[in-house]
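Feature request, filed as a ticket because there's no other form

It would be nice if the structure record came with a short human-readable summary line next to the tokens. Right now we just get the raw output. Example of a typical job, pasted below so the devs can see what we mean:
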Amino acid sequence: MLRKFLMLAILALVASPPVLANPDVWVTTNWHIRMADHSVAGLTLEWTFDPFASSFLFTTFDTDGDGTVSSQEAQAKEEELFAPIAEQDWYLTILGNGELVSWHLQHAETVFDPDHFGLRLTIVLDDPQAPFSARLRDDLLFFDFSFADDGFLTVEGSVDPACRFVAGAGEGVFEGYMSTITLRCGDPS
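Raw output as currently delivered:
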């Protein structure tokens, strides 16, 4: 059911004129970056879906309709949810020194809290990178990603004192992309 919904929504977006394109799901993100030897080694992304999508996903996962999602119900539906997102590489692009970085998903899990549905993605970079830049972007506009308010970025480990993380509009290859996290080193601005 969920896979059908996602595929129909994507087809509707593709068939729609670009002027009418509008995201169907709004996702607020928190980023937790893991450092090793002053380079980015991995990150955990926490996605929180908007209330409408959360409600739809909750009722989809709650297959017996008892108002709770058991671990068995979650496991049964996770593949349906994760497969279409995984086919799009989780909408995540990572650059190191301006080149695409090889990474893999170590763990993905659904998160149910009283008000929102979410995903927690643990990403490992196959080769630690600095400088580093990452973005979440769905060019088909099924998902629209934004940063959470306060505390959306946390860092674990040592960062070179000449470096800093910057959140906002991207530069270079990511020019014009919002919701980009960049580790800038030796940058005076």
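Something like this underneath would help us a lot:
The helical segments are 2-15, 51-61, 71-87.
Residues 41 and 123 are 9 Å apart (CA to CA).
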